[in-house]
């Protein structure tokens, strides 16, 4: 299979789980985690579970580790596998998990000389009611690295990378003035960072642009503005880590956001594969 086909299979596996893989449905979350772990265990990397307890339930992050030439600093690449409410979550965030898994497969397949070890993480509990709390899987992961004294060079978050539109005016903006700087057709991908991260965000954007056919944009805004802090990358900022989100702009483009209509047939897998190719090439060059 090629990247497009593998991405499709990943999204299909996650969106086919019933009931929906939200925080209440432990069997579905555990099935999702088992699928992710099984896919990662096929590769030349170290795989482990990172369990943690919230409200009497045990949730887990799944971690894959690829050794690099330097043991000093590592790169973190993550995506969350839970959904909000009772919906299939194709774009949010089976697409991101598929991107993370495909990045791992490309690392295994291409065996690039890594400048840094790469730690890929599938997180649980990104969605409400745990969003922005210390119970997010990414908060637990970031905190554990900090406590261990692990130096992290950067973090890249895959969050909603599958929805694109070629219709004019299909792209919305959190503030009207931003429309002057970005396309109004929702067929691009965005590297999102907070104010003060401009150099890093633009570096990731430029590296992606060299290796992908998808239009790659970047934006830096205050962390509480729009969708800037609305995913797992937010939990690395508190440790002064450069962390960005690769995103299709979420609810600013995708009308199926957090709806039962967020299904696999709404995604563009050709563009998803192109996004992951660009992101992978950026990650190994950071």
Automatic annotation (TrEMBL):
InterPro entries reported in the protein's UniProt record: M28_fam, Peptidase_M28
Domain Peptidase M28: residue ranges: 61-278
SUPFAM superfamilies: Zn-dependent exopeptidases
PANTHER family assigned to the protein according to its UniProt record, in alphabetical order: METALLOPEPTIDASE M28 FAMILY MEMBER, PEPTIDASE M28 DOMAIN-CONTAINING PROTEIN
Listed name of the protein: M28 family peptidase
Originating organism: Pontibacter ruber
């Amino acid at each position: 299979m090629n990247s497009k086909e593998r991405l499709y299979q990943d999204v299909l596996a996650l969106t086919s789980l019933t009931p929906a893989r939200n925080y209440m449905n432990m069997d579905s979350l555990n099935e999702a985690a088992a699928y992710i772990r099984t896919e990662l265990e096929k590769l030349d990397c170290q795989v482990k579970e990172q369990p943690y307890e919230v409200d009497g339930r045990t949730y887990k992050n799944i971690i894959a580790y690829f050794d690099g030439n330097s043991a000093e600093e590592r790169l973190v690449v993550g995506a969350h596998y839970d959904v909000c409410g009772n919906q299939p979550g194709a774009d949010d965030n089976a697409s991101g998990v598929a991107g993370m898994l495909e990045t791992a497969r490309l690392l295994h397949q291409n065996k690039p000389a890594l400048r840094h070890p790469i730690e890929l993480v599938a997180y649980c509990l990104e969605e409400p009611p745990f969003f922005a709390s210390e119970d997010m899987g990414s908060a637990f992961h970031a905190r554990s690295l900090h406590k261990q004294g692990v130096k992290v060079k950067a973090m890249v978050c895959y969050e909603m990378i599958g929805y694109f539109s070629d219709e004019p005016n299909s792209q919305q903006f959190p503030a009207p003035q931003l429309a002057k700087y970005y396309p109004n057709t929702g067929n691009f991908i965005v590297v999102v960072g907070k104010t003060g991260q401009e150099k890093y965000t633009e570096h990731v954007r430029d590296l992606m642009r060299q290796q992908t056919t998808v239009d790659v944009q970047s934006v830096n805004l205050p962390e509480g503005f729009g969708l800037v802090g609305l995913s797992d990358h937010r939990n690395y900022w508190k440790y002064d880590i450069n962390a960005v989100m690769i995103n299709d702009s979420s609810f600013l483009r995708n009308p199926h956001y957090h709806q039962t209509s967020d299904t696999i047939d709404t995604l563009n897998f050709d563009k998803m594969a192109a996004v992951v190719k660009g992101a992978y090439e950026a990650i190994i060059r950071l």
